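re: ur question from the group chat, yeah i did fold both. here u go
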Amino acid sequence: MHGAGVEPGEDRHLRQELRQLDGRRAAAERCRLVSVGLGGGGGGEGGGIAQALRDVQLQVKQLLSQEERLAAQAAAEQEEEAAAAAAAAKRGGGRLAVAPLQAGDEEDEEGSETLGSTSSSGGDPAEEEADGGSAAGMLHAAVALLDEAQALLDDAEDRVVQYARLYRFSQAEYDELSKRLQQVGGWVLEGSAGVAKVVVNT
């Protein structure tokens, strides 16, 4: 066997290395599938969780932009209404000061002011403003969570890539070991046949 260039136990060692390479090849294929699932594999058409997450982020950010624009418009309209009401009250204030108020009229006015104060504190504009701020806050929180998810997803993909580099599969190495094993196996069979022939002849 040494004359044929075969070391003792070389065939067993070659089979072990080939099994290890088979494991590396399986791991490399799984890493490729994970990479495609996470980031789309870098293809032109996109895909994967990362692309889906980017689409969701875009939609939520558009919702937030729309909500902020509507809230700004509502605030501007309320300011205009308040300014118009103040101007009207200023113009009507001079005429009201000319006529003296009677006792009954004074009580009626105080009652109407109290009613107006109550309605303004529990009216729809205040609730809508609060609801608008709450809605924007929820969307801001959603954007922050999606950004965090994107960062975690990128980190997971990087770790999978690093793992794949540790156990990189080489087809050339696999073919070389397979060829060597076939040669060693042939020489082992030839040696066994020669030994058997000697035993029979004796």
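okk and heres the other one u asked abt
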Amino acid sequence: MKRFAYRINGLAGEVFIDLNQEVKELAIFCFGFPGNIGKNVIVEYFVSQDYAVFVHQYSGTYDSDGLYHLESSIDSIVLLSKIINNGNLRDIKNNKVIPLNSAPLTTLTAHSFGCLIGGRAATKVESISKIVLFAPILGYGKNPTDYAVLEDGIFQLEYVKRARPHTFRFGKLNTWSNLFNGKLNSWNVDKTYEKKIISIVGSEDDNFNIKDLENNYDNIIKSVFKLDFKSDLIIVDGAGHSEVDFLTDEVKLKIREFLK
């Protein structure tokens, strides 16, 4: 697997490609909060399915310019999508065009809090028609049943501010507080593009009330994507919150069928 790096319009990130196979589609991976750049098991899986995978660094994180908050993160994914679709993205090291084989950007995959950022961004990008979510944090409700999320977002925010002050350069702290207090779950979708979605969560993931997630999943998906349709939720027995827990042989098969 070959790693390329890009930096354009103040946005930075990496692209992972298997040069021994033909790239047929492109995917963007959105990491969580906090999250690590570089390849992971999710990226490796999609590359094995003939994808080139972008691991994007949101505005205000890692080597991307700006400040990190919900709107800037969503906007940076939308901007990256436009850059990808325009073609001729260059590797920052040798200034050569990254060999994407003119493949289309069709897929977004995300983990944890990255699902909230990536999910909202995907509603603004027509070419993204397939969304694969792992441990799907999609909102923070005023009531625990709203999004089935048990994580204390304010606690997590203060932890990341202390632990990684240069990696995550926060802006609009009032927006973060409003988000974690369940005040930013209502938002407008300018135009609805058709998507298909599959979500994977671990049965032992203590960031969720799994029963509430299972019972309310269709309503959660509708509230985020503004679409009234069926989306599949896979619960992986014994898995927790980590990316390494999800990709059993059975789950790989289901995702492979979904991506067709």
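fwiw on the second one: Residues 70-86 form the longest helix (17 residues). Helices lie at 41-48, 70-86, 113-122, 144-147, 153-163, 173-180, 210-225, 249-259. idk if thats what u expected
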